[in-house]
Amino acid sequence: MAYNKRGSRDESPVRFKDGQPVFREERSYYNKKNNDRPYGDKKPYGKNRFDGDDKPYGKKRFEGEEKPYKKNRFEEGERAERENFRRKGREQEADAPNAREDELPYLVMGRNAVREAIKSGRSIDRILVSKDPDGSLREILSFARDRNLRIDEVGREKLDSLCMPFGHGGKTGNHQGIVAQVPGVEYCDISDMLNDARAKGEKPFIILLDGIEDPHNLGSIIRSAVCAGAHGVIFPKRRAVSVTAAASKASAGAVEHCRVARVANLSGAISRLKDEGLWIAGADMQGTPMGNAKLEGAIGLVIGSEGEGISRLVRESCDFMVSVPMYGDFDSLNASVAAAVLMFEKRRQDAVRR
Q1: E-assigned strand segments in the chain
Q2: Mean pLDDT of 76-98
Q3: What is the pTM of this model?
Q4: Which domains does the chain have, with CATH numbers?
């Protein structure tokens, strides 16, 4: 007697052997001659699959060190390699804003900036100017023609499109009707700044920026540095803004008259300046008031970031800290303003104690 798939009795034979019918109930995994299983003790769907230690997918799969995929996949070497890969990814993500800035075409925007770029003799690929230029634009174009520079008259829409990446709030950069396309900012080495000071017979005066991220602050500091007679500005390559078109515009063209250096390690640059005989002063609200601090002579002035100030490692590298006294209800200054005040206090002390 046998049962079909629906559970009802089925007395029909499933096959014939030696002319005799063989019913479903007579089928067995046992050999009738020796009462053994045809597959021995390795029956895949019986004891070995469901009974204790003989589970081929049991003990080795679910117990600790015997997991074959666990031990080989997460051994120490591969774990370290994975962590190193993640670290590099985080560094690249942190550097992404600066990388995008460097990929943008370098433009000198604005009338004063373009005028100073032409006067400084900087290499200029071409000048784009709006049609029907007015008085000040015609003066700038006259300088450009004297240097045999290429001049293209374009519509204002073209200038707006070029300067859009350098604007903010959905507005284009303020080009004032003229843009100069240049190969890129010409960074120099620290030795160039020191040689420039020696050639002028002056004590080196260097500005170091620790994590300035606003291009407008950078441009303003460079402009103040040129006006105060500083011999150069140094800032790190990572976690800091570079000299973009917005920074050049904010400097009103002063970047064309300033030596600028980008270094991999700001603390290393400070050590080098110390070896050259410079004292390093850091700007900090808890420092010595600038009137009581000794700022004359060979000085490196460190300006911290807009929010966090000077980082710990750079702070430890400074010889002393200096502050700007506050007299009002508000107790902090913009980074570029504080930098300008300290620069001219240094020059005041040079003039008084000369």
Answers
A1: 2-3, 9-10, 15-17, 20-22, 107-109, 126-130, 151-154, 178-181, 205-210, 232-236, 260-263, 279-289, 299-304, 320-323
A2: 55
A3: 0.59
A4: 105-181 (3.30.1330.30), 190-352 (3.40.1280.10)
